[in-house]
Specification:
0% strand; mainly alpha; globular; single chain; 9 helices
Length: 182
Amino acid sequence: MSRLSIPAVEQSRPESQVLLAAVKSQLGMVPNLMKLLGHSPAALEGYLALNGALGKGALPVALRERIALAVAEYNGCDYCLSAHDYLGRNVAKLSRNELDAARDGQSEDAATHAALQFALRVLANRGQVSDAELAAVRLAGFDEAAVLEIVAHVALNVLTNFSNNVARTAIDFPVVQSRRAA
């Protein structure tokens, strides 16, 4: 059971209802995360704006979903693992092996592997990465813009992981559980 309420869209604040209607038109549903964030129109708008902007960035959807899985596993967020496993399978068309590997920051593709390892170093060290770690991701083909987008995706996913972990948001996707204790 959620520790913070998950209001129905029509019970949300009017400013949030407008944003949640846009989410429904894009996804065909309003995930519980969005309803949760809808308690604060500012939080919901901030999340949607950053997510939308990053969706127009240089990183392909398959890498974005892998980063989300790696960060969610690290943070023990079952809600985000469930959502991004679903999106990874159905939107990014990732194989079960790649989805499972991404949770551990791994990939058969060398560039993807380097990006995931960098994302986890950013997360674990709060952005204080070494020169060698930065050089490795750049050597794998990621320019400065892509490096900053990886950092931004880590931050975006930390926001959702922490929000869901605080709330213990009810999972409305096929359930995937973290392999580590939160």
